[in-house]
Amino acid sequence: MGRPARHDRAAGGSVMIGVFDSGIGGLSVLRALYAVLPDEDYVYIADSAHCPYGARPPEEILRLSLGIGRYLAEEGARVIVVACNTASAAALAGLREALAPLPIVGMVPAVKPAATRTRSGVVGVLATPATFGGSLYADVVEHHAHGVRVLSQTCHGLVERIEAGDLEGPETMALLRGYVEPLLAAGADTLVLGCTHYPFVIPALRRIVGEGVALVEPSEAIARQVARVLPERRNGSGRAERVYATTGAPAAMARALGRLLGEAGEVRALAWHDDGRLCGA
Description:
Layout: H1 9-12, E1 16-21, H2 27-36, E2 41-46, H3 58-74, E3 77-82, H4 85-99, E4 104-106, H5 111-117, E5 122-127, H6 129-133, H7 135-144, E6 149-154, H8 158-163, H9 170-185, E7 190-193, H10 202-209, E8 214-216, H11 219-229, E9 242-246, H12 250-261, E10 267-272, E11 278-280
Parallel strand pairs: 1-2, 1-3, 2-9, 3-4, 5-6, 5-7, 7-8, 9-10
Antiparallel strand pairs: 10-11
Helix pairs in contact: 2-11, 3-4, 9-10
């Protein structure tokens, strides 16, 4: 497969938004971006060859994120969205330094809105080990959770179930109950979904927590932030282009597009080189 077509702002009159995640979880953010900015061009990259990122060391996550970020910048991205909480925790600062002045928008666990919403004063956060271990999470808790008890719950295995397409099966439901029920027992009335994969199991979570528990995730806020930092908007001429690519199996990602976005799309294959570059396979 060839590389996604380069986007020339002067020639095409549009801005390409690059979006990436360790896998298909970032499609939850892409869904919000399509709703807020439907006329822009997009390239979405899933690094499925290395999914999940959650248990990988920060240095490896940084290296992978830099490889994807540089690839998107070379393809003409005018904004890059790190649609992965784990990659944001490990690599957001490094990406901004390496790719400056290109705007980089990352994920921050939505503790701030959760802290303002809770009535019980207890907030549960569902995320990966790498997200909890990063300074982004520690900073947001320190600065925005005054007077609120924040409970951190690592969700081992949940990303893998979502990647496999098991959104409400017995194994996924058992995992969710094991992670969520102790938080509810501790008094949490607000749960933060601290991984972009997790919004896809909101219906399953609702079956467990009911309607009285708030589920907070930041995809809409991220889309609004992208709209604020866009250097310009599409001029309205021509059809917006949506390109999907993966370092894993294109057929599996194509199925995920239909299942999670309700849209069909060609998925292009990418491959990692030994020197850390990402190229067309």
